[in-house]
Amino acid sequence: MSGPAPSHDGYSDDFIRQVLERVKTIALVGASSDPVKASFIVLKYLRDKGYRVIPVNPKLAGQTILGERVHASLSELPESPDMVDVFRNAAAAGGVTDEAIAAGAKVVWMQLGVRNDEAAARAEAAGLTVVMNRCPKIELQRLFHEIGRIGVNSNILTSKKAAPAKSFKKLM
């Protein structure tokens, strides 16, 4: 992307849309195999939207999540990801950002509640695009009108109350 880096206090819809449209491969650092964890839900959603999502988590290295082999670190990836999605705290985001630079990523995306201005400055100095304190799943849903008034869009219009699901895993 050309032009000056955006203010990390706010991003335009056009900026977020351009980032998400040019990304094809995402390394998700802090991936979980637990289907109720946010990182799993985001991984599944991004995969279902057509992105290749590579899980990264040293505790789960060698296992698979949704058919993708989990890697211990970004340095072990078989290819350079377009984007690194950081599901770690702000302090850990600095090291992950340095690994993303070394791995040849084009974008570092820090999840909701994660902001590390020093790491962002290093990434931008290395030519990477940085997004902080945002969730790509939420941004995709917002930009492409998938989020309804109550935060979800079931694509079902009914006046009848649905029976509760028997388990969360059956919804997947």
Describe the 3D structure.
The protein is α/β, with parallel strands linked by helices. It is built from 5 helices and 7 strands. It has helices at residues 13-22, 38-48, 90-103, 117-125, 136-143; strands at residues 25-29, 52-56, 64-65, 68-69, 83-86, 107-110, 129-131. Helix 1 crosses helix 5 and helix 3 (90-103) packs parallel to helix 4 (117-125). The protein is globular, with a radius of gyration of 17 Å.
Show the helix and strand layout.
Blueprint: H1 13-22, E1 25-29, H2 38-48, E2 52-56, E3 64-65, E4 68-69, E5 83-86, H3 90-103, E6 107-110, H4 117-125, E7 129-131, H5 136-143
Parallel strand pairs: 1-2, 1-5, 5-6, 6-7
Antiparallel strand pairs: 3-4
Helix pairs in contact: 1-5, 3-4
Task: Specify the biggest β-sheet.
Answer: 5 strands, parallel
Shape: globular
Low-confidence segments, given as residue ranges, are none
Query: Gap between N and C termini, in Å?
Result: 36 Å
How would you spell out the order of helices and strands?
Answer: HEHEEEEHEHEH
Number of separate strands: 7
Strand percentage lies at 5-15%
Helicity level, as a percent range? Answer: 25-40%
What is the structural class? alpha/beta
Q: Number of helical segments? A: 5
Q: Mean pLDDT, as a whole number? A: 88
> What is the assembly state of the chains in this entry?
single chain
Strand order in the largest sheet: 2-1-5-6-7
How many whole angstroms does the radius of gyration measure?
A: 17 Å
